[in-house]
Design a protein that fits this description.
Strand content: 15-25%
Shape: elongated
Number of strands: 14
CATH architecture of the largest domain: Alpha-Beta Barrel
Largest sheet: 8 strands, parallel
CATH topology of the largest domain: TIM Barrel
Number of domains: 2
Bound molecules: phosphoenolpyruvate, manganese (II) ion
Strand order of the largest sheet: 13-12-11-10-9-8-7-14
Radius of gyration: 23 Å
CATH superfamily of the largest domain: Aldolase class I
Helix content: 25-40%
C-alpha cells in the first residue's frame, strides 16, 4: 500500500502515520517528493486494512497495491484452473461449454422437454431454478425441493449434468444431493456466509457477478469460496446495473479478457440476464465467445410465451438449435 500525504502535511503528521503503520507490525518507508511525501507500506502478506490510516490528519489518499484476493489470482496460481462438472470441463484448452435450460423449473414435463431440446441442439449442461430470487414477493418463487427432483430427473434422462441456484445455507445439503453444480446468483454474490459454506462442500460452483459489483469485488467473492479449499469455481458475467434502460442490464464484456488475465478461474457469460431481450441473445453470445468466454449460460424454454419467469429473454428450443449451429462454426473458427 502507498499512503499519499497532502502537500501541506507537517513532519509531525508524517511521523504519526509512520507510527500507525509500525503499530500494525508493518514497515513504513517515506518517499519524499517535490510536492508531497508518500509513504510506502512494506511487509504485508495481503490486503492492508487502511481504515485507521485513511482518517489520520495530513493523509490525502491510500493506494492499494495488493488486492483483496490472492488465491484466485494468477500471480499466486499461474496455471489456468479447469473446472470439472461430472465430466464437463470449463477452462483454457477446452471447447466452450453451453449451459441451457429454463429460468425456473415449472413442472416435470417442461423440464423433460427443455432437457431433450437443449441436449439435441448440443448443450453440455442443463440449468433450471428451483429456489428463485424474484424481485417481488408476489412473483413465482420456484417449486423448491419438488423442482430439484424434476431437474435431476431431466438431467438423468438427457445425460446432462445440472446446475441450480442455492439461496440459503439450509438449502445446501439437499441441493448437493440433486445437482452437479451450485449456482450463486447475482443477488447473493456478497452473501459471505453462504460463500464460505459453499466453499466447504467441495461441489463445483457457478458464481454470478453481482449487479453492482466491481471486478475486484467479484474476484474477492470467489476468494471466499477458494479460501475454504474449493477451487472448482466458474465465474459468470451476467450484466451490471447502469443508467441504460434499453437493456435489462449492461453486458460488461471487457471483464472477460480482464479476468482471464487476472485470475486462473474460468469465466462464462450469461447473455440472457445481461440483455433481457431474446433478439439480442444470439449476437451477444457470439460476442462473448469472441471476447474469450469459456462458455455461455442461455435461458431456453419449450414455450417462452407462457414461461413463469423470464420468457422475454428465453429462446425457444428451435431458436436455441439455430443458435448452436452458428456457435459451433464460430467455436471451430476461434479454436479453444
Ligand atoms: C438465474 O440465472 O437464474 C438468475 C436469477 O440470474 P442472476 O442471479 O444473474 O440474476
Ligand atoms: Mn432468469
Amino acid at each position: 500500500m502507498l499512503i499519499v500525504m497532502h502537500h501541506h502535511a507537517s513532519q509531525e503528521q508524517i511521523d504519526q502515520v509512520i507510527a500507525a503503520v509500525e503499530a500494525m507490525g508493518l514497515k513504513a518507508e517515506p518517499i519524499p517528493g517535490s510536492l508531497r511525501t508518500a509513504i510506502g507500506v512494506l511487509g504485508n502478506q495481503g490486503y492492508v486494512d487502511d481504515s485507521t490510516i485513511r482518517t489520520l490528519p495530513g493523509v490525502r489518499e491510500t493506494i492499494h497495491v495488493s488486492k483483496p484476493y490472492k488465491m484466485v489470482s494468477r500471480d499466486f496460481h499461474p496455471e489456468s484452473t479447469v473446472v470439472d462438472v461430472a465430466g464437463v470441463k470449463f477452462g483454457d484448452g477446452q471447447r466452450p461449454v453451453l449451459i441451457a435450460g429454463p429460468c425456473s423449473i415449472e413442472n416435470e414435463q417442461q423440464m423433460l422437454d427443455a432437457a431433450a431440446q437443449v441436449k439435441a441442439a448440443g448443450a453440455q449442461m442443463l440449468r433450471g431454478g428451483a429456489f428463485k430470487p424474484r424481485t417481488g414477493p408476489h412473483s413465482f418463487q420456484g417449486l423448491g425441493i419438488e423442482g430439484l427432483k424434476y431437474l435431476q430427473q431431466a438431467g438423468q434422462a438427457s445425460g446432462l449434468p445440472v446446475v441450480t441456484e442455492v439461496m440459503r445455507i439450509e438449502q445446501l445439503e439437499v441441493i448437493c444431493r440433486h445437482a452437479d453444480m451450485l449456482q450463486i446468483g447475482a443477488r447473493n454474490m456478497q452473501n459471505f456466509d453462504l460463500l464460505k459454506e459453499v466453499g466447504k462442500t467441495g461441489h463445483p460452483v457457478l458464481l454470478k457477478r453481482g449487479m453492482s459489483a466491481t471486478l475486484e469485488e467479484f474476484l474477492a467473492a470467489a476468494e471466499y469460496i477458494v479460501a475454504e479449499g474449493n477451487e472448482q469455481v466458474v465465474l459468470c458475467e451476467r450484466g451490471i446495473r447502469t443508467f441504460e434502460k434499453a437493456t435489462r442490464n449492461t453486458l460488461d464484456l471487457s471483464v472477460v479478457p480482464l479476468i482471464r488475465e487476472l485470475s486462473h478461474l474460468p469465466i462464462i457469460v450469461d447473455p440472457s440476464h445481461a440483455t433481457g431481450k431474446r433478439a439480442l441473445v444470439p449476437v451477444m453470445s457470439k460476442a462473448a465467445l469472441v471476447a474469450g468466454a469459456h462458455g455461455l449460460m442461455v435461458e431456453v424454454h419449450p414455450d417462452p410465451a407462457n414461461a413463469l419467469c423470464d420468457g422475454a429473454q428465453s429462446l425457444s428450443g428451435e431458436g436455441f438449435a439455430e443458435l448452436m449451429g452458428e456457435l459451433n462454426g464460430l467455436i471451430d473458427y476461434l479454436g479453444s
